[in-house]
Amino acid sequence: MGQKNNFKNANFHATTQIVEGDVYNINSERKECQATYHPEPIWRSKITLATLAWASTIISFLSLFPIYKVIIEPIQMLLSSNYENIGNNNYLFIFLLILLVLFFMVLTLRYIVKKQIRYPLILNYAINGKGHRLTLEKIKIDPCPQCGGEMKYYNKPIEWNGNKVTKTTPALECLRNHEHWYKVDPAEDRI
Question: Phi and psi dihedrals of 109, rounded to 5?
């Protein structure tokens, strides 16, 4: 039979102390230490959300021209018996590849600006979209609050499926002890 927390017909459902005299409670709970950082803007661009939206639209239309040549010409080649008109379309593949890379870069930047989040880059740099404008920042990180080690800011993998990383989160991680890491809110306002 379990112990009941009742005293003079009053039921207590949480931690309860029933004592006579002086009570000295030493807070045994460990305080949650938090790593701190200070972003310093290096470059504030004039690229806005509207500019990125127009750029993605223009790039997507430009990518239709090489796709037409790459798809239609091989079909015409298979249907015709004249093999002398076969051209070299390598430049179209390269042009299409460049346009696709630009398109996905613009979409990624547009996502950052639209959500107004901070996205970690390498060497403690980040891209911020606060105010619907792109800002390149250098993240200045204070020493680790637990051991005093140097910290780095990056996208830390937190979930895996075998060898494939399925989820990452922006984090501050100690270089001395990799178990000391702190999650960073990507939508935190600090400029």
Answer: -65, -35
Question: Cα-flanking dihedrals φ and ψ of residue 93, to 5°?
Answer: -65, -40
The answer to whether the CB of 39 falls within 8 A of the CB of 153 is: no
1 compared with 160, residue with greater pLDDT: 160
Say how far apart CA 182 and CA 128 lie, in whole Å. 19
Per-residue pLDDT tens digits for 7-36: 666 666 656 666 777 777 666 566 667 878
Quick check: 165 and 159 in contact, CB under 8 A? yes
Residue type, 177: N
Name 48's bridge partners: 133
Q: What DSSP state is assigned to residue 149? A: -
In order, the DSSP letters of 2-50 are PPP-EETTEE--S-----SS-------SPP-----EEEEEEEEEEEEHH
Looking at the chain, how many residues does it have?
191
> What's the distance, CA 42 to chain centroid?
19
Angle at 148 between CA 143 and CA 149, to 5 degrees: 75
Domain ranges of the chain: 37-183
Q: How far apart are CA 105 and CA 137, in angstroms?
A: 18
